[in-house]
Structure of Cytochrome P450 94A1-like:
Amino acid sequence: MDLSPLLPPILFLSFLSLYLLHRMNKSHIGSATKISFSEMVRNGHRFLEWTAELVLASPTNTIILPSGIITGNPKNIEHVLKTKFDNYPKGDAVTVLEDFLGRGIFNTDGDHWKLQRKIASLQFNTKTIRNFVLDNVHREAVDRLLPLLSEAAAAGETLDLQDLLDRLAFDNVCKVASDVDPARLKGETEDTGRFAHAFEVAMDISAKRFRQPGLLWKLRRALNIGDERRLGEELATVNEFAMGVVKERKQRKTEEMESSSDLLSRFISEGAFSDEFLRDVIISFVLAGRDTTSSAMAWFLWLVSTRPGVEQKILDEISWVRSRHHNPPGGTLTLDELREMNYLHAVVSEGLRLYPPVPLQPRQCAADDVLPDGTAVKKGMSVTYNTYAMGRMEGIWGEDCKEFKPERWLDGDGLFQPKRPFLFPVFHAGPRTCLGKEMAYTQMKAVVASVIERFEIEVVGEKEREIEFTTILRMKGGLPVKVKEREGGNAGTARAFDH
């Protein structure tokens, strides 16, 4: 799921740069709404919601901050991500994340990116990788997650479902990326536990770099003090583990390598890449799928558990699909069966519309440009699209845009109808469209279908959940729930979806 979860989460990082502020004040802005430096500082604690409100209120759906441009205008987004793709690389973010991601696919541009993209795209488009992903998901859900939920149901315990889904997603993406199972849901080994912990700390510290002047973190790195010293220590653990996986995999026989479905094995089979290059491949793909899908599933399960009518329709559809394929309740769902679940696909998409895992996606302008709405962009400026705001635009979704309404994704026959990617860029758009989009949908649908089919979920405490945005859009305080086994398994009816 190429949602770049370590891209700048709070884009007022450069408000201390007087040079940039001076240049912005002198430049021609066009018709976009300009926001002052002081306003940005005052609203830094709620940056995502604040910028979304401003984008929605702007006549062009574009605003200008001292730190750059933020837009929700689909024409601007198509311009940046497709029409003028080469003029909007990742820019300074590459330097900020280089210690962590190296030159992995999500932290590079140009020929190096094209090579990795080509190899990865060949693998993501095969049925082999899809079945590999689904097998891993079923192992995680059926053999690990559901037993944990069953034990909690019997004991009447409260669980943080968001945390459990984080662990599941980490296990799954590590398996897909490198055929290594951290077993965080089952009880991790010492080595995989150290790797998982180090990975999480390294990600958090790397993200903090975006919220401080570059000179400050670079000085700390040079002096090896504070967070930068800790980052170096944690990265040593991450890199040691990933490098060990690479070296072990390279020692395997050719035929064994060619029969493996994980991404690392496929990259090794495609060319004579350095160990460092392959290490970056592992770390990059683990990062891409680590929190994005778990965040989406957590929001999904909260939305559904607080809307009984939607939940019942999902149960009805699962029952209908099982009946068509003579697959009894609790049986493993196949790719074909998951594809036939149009309503479930619509509910997942509706959740992503309102709560996109990575709601801000920045790019950096390489040469002076003008966006389609007339906004001038100077070389070096960032242009960020706000998918959180876009999911709430009447111009795209209609007057009921703030309502949770899965039916907006279905045609008259109940079949799923996708939106143009520049109207719904949750999976990015243009040449860098997320390669793992279908994999993400498969994982999410398989997991949530397994959970909903077997358990009733009751949110503990306040039913409404506040957003918390650092690197990923998450629920503040997690998702505390109590679960209850459904009587007789699935309470749905096959007739409800018999078109």
Remarks:
- The longest helix spans residues 127-155.
- The CA atoms of residues 88 and 365 lie 5 Å apart.
